[in-house]
Amino acid sequence: MITKPIEKKSYWFSKRENQLLLLEFPFQKFNLLILASTAFWFLYVLNSTQNEGFAKSITELINKYWINPILSKIGTGEIPILLFALAVILIILFSVAKGLRQYVYSGKRISIYIALLFNYSLLRFFDTPFSFSRFTQIGWLNNLAYWDLLYLLLAPVIYGIWILYPVQIHKKKDNVTSKPSYLSDDPADDDIFPERMSIAEKFSISIEKIQVKSSYAIGITSPWGNGKTTFLRFLIKKLKEKDSKAIFIEFSPWFCKSESDIISLFFDSLSDGLKAYHSSINNKLKKYAKVILSLRKNTFTENIGKALNLFEESKELHSLYKDLNSHIGKLDRKIYISIDDLDRLYAKEIIECFKVIRNTANFKNVVFIVAYDAEYVDKALKEALKENHKNYIDKIIQLEYALPEIESGALVDFIETKLGQFNIGYDEINRILEPKFIEKLESSNNGARKINELILEDYFGNVRDCIRILNSFSAHYQNLEGEVLPSDLFLVCILKTLFPDEALKVYLNMNDIFIENGGLQFKNLDQLKNVTKKVKDQSAKTEPRYLIKQINENKNFLNLVQAIFFVQKPCIRSASCNDNYETYYNGVVSENKIKFKDFKEWIKSAENLMDQIDLLNLKKTSLNQEKLNNLSIKLTKYIAENKMQAQVQVHALLYLQEILKFDYLFGSITRVLNDFKEECIDILSNIIANPLNVNTHLITSLLFKIKLAYIRKITNESYSLIVKINNGLELFHSLTLEMLKKKISEEKIDDNLFDIHSSCINKKNSDSKFIVDPRANKLMKDFINLSENKIPFLKNLAITKHEFDDMNMRAFRPHLDQIFNDEIGNYDGFERFFKDVYEENHEDSELLQIWNYWEKYKASNFNYYLLET
Questions:
Q1: Which of 60, 68, 481, 856, CA to CA, is 20 to 30 A from 569?
Q2: Closest Cα to residue 400, out of 379, 378, 382, 429?
Q3: Helix axes 426-433, 486-498, angle to 10 degrees
Q4: Is-above-0.70 flag for pTM?
Q5: Residue 570 and residue 523: Cα distance in Å, rounded?
Q6: CA distance 62 to 70
Q7: Is the pLDDT of residue 13 over 70?
């Protein structure tokens, strides 16, 4: 079935609105009277004081041609009421007409009105030789003169303008300066493309030369959304320039609700266009249309060859047609009737329009210019007329012209111009329209790859598609300005506009398509395909799993998805981050996400950012948890611009790692340190000096992993460094020593103290045992020996052996041999220290138990011991 893409507008409303707008007509003509009257009063004022004869002669003329022959014969009692009522009605109609147009008054028009009233007031109320005829001698009406009606009419209008004028002008300025929200599907005349201007110019010359006795029909065809309406308007504009006598009528059958409405609306439009050129043609056309409708009632024609011959069946209709045709011919003007939106009608309505062109409106000097999608109309006619549809249009349209397709480069220029109207900067527009480099698969079996460009021109099929994409972009951009990357948003809007079903599937199944194990983002379709296949093969996974190629194998769709999601260096606002894509797709920032403008404020200082994290973490709701997760993602994607921002970023990531227990944050921290190689030691040193809420254990762990990579690379050159800087091991080692000194200064023995000491390794021996820096061992030994109470140190030695699930498995802290002996594997110094402390505190049963555990630990070759049950 052929269906209409858009609901029709009420014909009644459209017709009544047009009639109301025509109420302006008498006022437009009235301006000439105002100008003439103003000139007359000025002449009168200049001459009345010096030449009373001039004023007297004017008065005599008025009495002779207006008062005596007309007003003196009418009952003066009714005149004031009738004229006053007329003035009130005119004022109301004037206001309605101007209100419908949202009229903006020019200073010139206001000046004319004021000048007229000023001069009239001068003559009316001051001592002048001019006499004003009165309405009547009855009561207060004796004070009114006939010309006072002019005052009654114009004064309220001027006063209204005086009040509304500043508001209207302000509104006009706002409309000019504010950025447009949306582009209309009914484009402006200046949206025509340059190459189409040249075509319209040449085509108008050919049309203007057409000389026919009966009507002539021209068809302008082009696919849906390819700029037919704009071309048609520009063509009419050119014809008006070439033939000032011609009459131009616009007929829009889309407003009609049925086939019979098409006839009514057509002849209404024809009547409105011709009545200004012939006094009786209006009634003749209405009568003609009425007869046609009465004869065609309840009939439908399936074939132009079998069409009902109305003229043979009705002599009255034939007579009316001849009379109308004669009157129209006498106008001696070409009548151009443009018909648009034919491809929005049902098949029966299309046929009815063609019958109007071919039969009922086949008048002299009439040229029909009809714009339509030939493929749509042909399909509709085939559905309605079956086998007889092929020659139907040929019998109606004498000249059919197919508009050439608009070049893709011109569409890009069109989009660039419209983007500029959204107040988007020139550089940003270039980023939106620049080629996007994507990785595409070769057809060969060896899996070789090549880098290609995503050409946006491939997605700009026609003008209407461009407008739909731009409107989608505008709707999203107004809500998301500053929150998203305009270039990414434009790609997402293309995806949603041209592939709406596929875009929805991608959105609903983001985690199934792009993410595995909480955060691994795939970078190519092969990897994605392998992982997705494994998931699908698991019988326990009954919910559907989508693969990009299974959603749609269309090349343009796949390329667009790659350009959006498979980017090499996604930033904090990039659509390639799945957490951001929800914002891009929905066009709003959901309440479980941190707005980028807030994030930019928070990132200005570590104290501020830590406070915000604490506020979210304090009230442990699911919403706050989601916001913390979103904040962590933003921090991982954030690209610091300077050392201070980098320090705040690392500080916050360390704190969030402690709160959220997300291991992937470690990689983001080292990425920031690598980005700021020259300043990374200063960044960590500042955090160590002022850790704020960050547990020093996290900093210790970070330094240990970085140093461990350096130590391993000494014996294995292929080993990758986590943070690569010159003299890295020495510099990072200095930080661990700094931390140890700071911790010892607190005189507190806890897990952090031992962890920091263990992180002070700086090499391996021949047995691959880690060696702690002797300076760190000395710091620890001196601290313990100088402590007045050494028992806390001993009681903190026994720890859980973490690699076993059985919590009964225990071990002692590492490197005790190096603290007391500076020699790996020699625990004599530690045991002497332990015995000395125990002898001084032999009543402490816990020390005795720890000593027993130590014996078991030593017996296990310093591996682990089992707690007594």
A1: 481
A2: 378
A3: 50
A4: no
A5: 11
A6: 11
A7: no
